[in-house]
Design a protein that fits this description.
This protein is mainly alpha-helical. The chain has helices spanning 9-25, 43-64, 69-88, 92-103, 105-108, 111-116, 119-132, 135-146, 156-163.
């Protein structure tokens, strides 16, 4: 079976971006009317959201299933390299999955792992946390997003909140 470290960060980010694009394009505008996704009446919205959740859990699993401390550090650094590529590609849906994954308690409690992360990765992680934070209705993300040029793969979670 493949491990996350088997994949080049840029190629992995590209594949996530293509998958997000494919799923988000399937969403019909009628699925977004009258909060149908909250009533299980929007299969494409649900499929895209489910993919983000599965990706988040898979990424967290990649971290917590590694028993060797130094390898676990490499896994987190690899995830952050992928994230950097996603930011460069304006791929925000999977970036949310990374934010969720690395904020799961099972990952954040690995204090020795986080202590061994190099300074540049810690700085980048803090930037991701600030960018994707839900505080003030994702204010930092919205400001950042407005400065971006197309093409953009939006963060589904945020634009669904705007429709409610």
């Amino acid at each position: 079976p493949y491990q996350l470290l088997d994949f080049h960060p840029l190629e992995f980010a590209r594949q996530l971006t293509l998958r997000d694009h494919k799923l988000l394009r399937k969403i019909q505008f009628t699925e977004l009317l009258r909060t149908r996704w909250m009533k299980n009446e929007a299969p494409n919205v649900e499929a895209a959201g489910e993919r983000v959740n599965k990706l988040a859990y898979w990424l967290a699993y990649q971290v917590v299933s590694e028993f060797q401390l130094k390898k676990r550090v490499k896994v987190i650094e690899h995830i952050l390299k992928i994230s950097k590529c996603m930011v460069g590609m304006n791929s925000f849906n999977s970036l949310m999955a990374v934010y969720l994954a690395l904020n799961f308690v099972s990952v954040t409690r690995l204090q020795q792992t986080w202590k061994l992360l190099s300074a540049k990765y810690l700085v980048f992680w803090k930037k991701i946390c600030k960018l994707m934070s839900p505080r003030n209705n994702f204010k930092n993300f919205r400001i950042f997003y407005q400065s971006k040029k197309f093409p953009i793969v939006p963060c589904q979670e945020i634009w669904l909140k705007d429709l409610v």
